[in-house]
Amino acid sequence: MSGRPIQVTGEILDVNRSGSYYVISVTAPGISEIAEPGQFVTVGMGGDETSMVLRRAFAIHRVQSRGVYGGTLDLVISPGGKGTTWLSKRRRHDTVSLVGPLGKPFTLPTQSVSCVLIGGGYGSAPLFLLAEKLRERGCRVDSIIGASTEEKLFGALDLKRVSTSLVLTTDDGSLGVKGRVTDVLEGVVTAGKTDIIYACGPMSMLANVAEFAVTHRIFSQCSVEESMACGIGVCMTCVLPIIGDDSVTRMVRSCVEGPIFRGDRVRWADIGTVPPDTYGAPVEEVST
Amino acid sequence: MNTPIVSARRAGDGSNGARVDMFTDLAKMHLPSPVLTASGCAAAGRELDNYFDITTIGAVVTKSIMLAPRSGRATPRMAETPSGMLNSIGLQGPGVDSFIEHDLAWLNHRGARTIVSIAGGTPEEFGKVAAKLRIAGGVEAIEVNISCPNVSDRGQVFACRAETAAQVIQTVRRNSDIKIPIFAKLSPDVTDIVEIAQSVIAAGATGVSVINTLLGMVMNTSTMRPALAGITGGLSGPAIRPIAVRCVWDIRSAMPDIPIIGMGGIRSGHDALEFILAGANAVSVGTSIFNDPSAPARIHAELAQELGDRGFLRVSDAVGYAHRPHTPTVDSEAQSSDAEWDFITE
Ligand SMILES: Cc1cc2nc3c(=O)[nH]c(=O)nc-3n(C[C@H](O)[C@H](O)[C@H](O)COP(=O)(O)OP(=O)(O)OC[C@H]3O[C@@H](n4cnc5c(N)ncnc54)[C@H](O)[C@@H]3O)c2cc1C
Ligand SMILES: Cc1cc2nc3c(=O)[nH]c(=O)nc-3n(C[C@H](O)[C@H](O)[C@H](O)COP(=O)(O)O)c2cc1C
Ligand code: FES
Known about the structure:
The complex is a heterodimer.
Chain A: E1 6-18, E2 21-27, E3 40-43, E4 56-59, E5 62-65, E6 71-77, H1 82-88, E7 95-102, E8 114-120, H2 127-136, E9 140-147, H3 156-162, E10 165-170, E11 177-178, H4 181-192, E12 196-200, H5 203-215, E13 219-223, E14 239-243, E15 249-253, E16 260-262
Parallel strand pairs in A: 8-9, 8-12, 9-10, 10-11, 12-13
Antiparallel strand pairs in A: 1-2, 1-7, 2-6, 3-4, 3-7, 5-6, 13-16, 14-15
Chain B: E1 24-26, E2 29-31, E3 35-37, E4 60-61, E5 78-81, E6 84-87, H1 96-110, E7 114-118, H2 123-136, E8 141-145, H3 162-174, E9 182-185, H4 193-202, E10 207-210, E11 214-216, E12 219-220, E13 225-226, E14 233-236, H5 241-254, E15 260-263, H6 269-278, E16 282-285, H7 288-291, H8 295-309, H9 315-318, H10 332-340
Parallel strand pairs in B: 3-16, 4-7, 7-8, 8-9, 9-10, 10-15, 15-16
Antiparallel strand pairs in B: 1-2, 5-6, 6-14, 11-14, 12-13
The complex binds flavin-adenine dinucleotide (FAD), flavin mononucleotide and FE2/S2 (inorganic) cluster (FES).
Flavin-adenine dinucleotide binds next to β4, β6 and α1 of chain A.
């Protein structure tokens, strides 16, 4: 069981560019000490009188103990909408509100097994902590990171350092193998005799990885990304159809029961719907 | 109503809050704080207990519960809007039996005061849920979410017509312990909210909760379709606050003595004070919890400070204070100059 989440004010220590991303280092006393691979934090946007009422979720990329600053977190920001753009413009000494660590972490194997780690875009962010933990346990770690283009591949050099092997893919062939992560997956799995696949990235990538894992009888864990309003389990916006231990499908909150799910338990093709056999699904449509 | 020294200690020295008596008598409940959670924004309290002690606030108002388990709607279920958000959750929940066994039992074990919000597709369903809660016990009050679609009225919400709203309240009243306060939660999407408030009170509601979300819509300009799977959603957050304050004001003007729980975009103690001045006996905090999970506890402290700064000794003295008859404000300086020019007037 992971530690209880807390709410703290963090001070930004550094903002560094990395391709099309920004890596933000922020003090997070009490969060960084208990954070586990795969967990995330939410960051308050825009200051006290902001019109952005919702926090944004970011995977915990690294945790460090930095002397006088105490524990710090590194987050990888992909500026896109209003909030992520605002956050990418923060500077040293700015403060932000943090809540975390949130969500369930990746499950780690008890033995030194052979693992493949797959990251799509900024989805490689949480894989560093995971790779380190797996290596500590003597696991083989083969990493694959992919993106549309070189600019969007995150952290190839750092991940290479903690991996047994690393393959890069880009859709446009600007770096590494031209194609998708799933195009090289079979080769990597065969060479490494893979027991577990860990994946984080766009939902379409996760769906393909999970399908591959199921057909090859490999255990998989995927970190999903669903739109979240609260991130702490109180609002029910972040749900997706998950098959439970009892084989029953339920609409499950990805912020508290995820974001890490077994690949074979997510009904990938049904995301964005409520499958008719879901627990509590409408028996009949409201007459209109 | 005690008259506070309005002009005194405006600035606030940071200690005035400690002196204010925050005990709140709401219907027959005696609560340590006027600050509650809003239904659907606090689940059943358990998650929030990580961030503040949920036994210190007035009560936990739980997510609207129905008779049977419900999956809720498809995703996307929310969209952020300027100073607010739209949601279309579709009342996902475990059903009243599981709620009683797990959630209500936990809240009681934890020592939290619980106001249970209930919903239904027919008046009978509301009645059955109320009857189950009556047997279970451990409930301070019931809040009736009449802003849900009426299965036999083309999905129109009960709250939009005085007759259907009253029908639901009557059924819940009949199926509840006579001592249990019942709050009807009203929708602002009506022509005359006062008329609806009067009809639910006449039907046996003890008080009203105002307001529920307003129906809204957002387009996703990438897909060029509605942003929510449910097409429309309920608007909440600071964007709706002035509408909510107006609704509280109107209902308080028409019914000076009914208990009112006010809500809609409360983000600070200052915002809570607006509702109380307009006539709310208590306030619920909803969307702000998503931004600040400890918001209810923070807002309690800030409200105490705001009241203290204005010379109030008890929160109950501020309820409806904005409705007092308009007398020219006489502060001490004005008084002395008036005295000097006394010979002119007259
Ligand atoms: C568990 C988890 C981990 C994540 N990790 C990272 C990360 O490491 N780096 C990174 O750059 N991004 C990450 N994201 C995605 C990030 O949270 C969204 O990109 C961000 O919320 C979008 O905010 P915006 O202000 O750019 O967009 P806006 O369009 O302004 O967002 C509006 C609202 O929708 C929600 N929203 C919109 N898109 C997403 C989305 N894709 N996922 C979740 N909520 C969304 C926002 O939270 C916000 O409430 C993660 C999301 C989740 C759920
Ligand atoms: C995600 C979400 C879910 C909600 N669910 C319910 C509900 O189940 N029952 C209910 O009566 N009101 C529900 N509401 C409405 C709130 O209780 C409240 O009336 C409204 O949001 C206005 O307050 P706020 O601006 O502080 O959120 C919900 C609101 C939100 C944002
Ligand atoms: S984001 Fe609110 S329950 Fe998951």
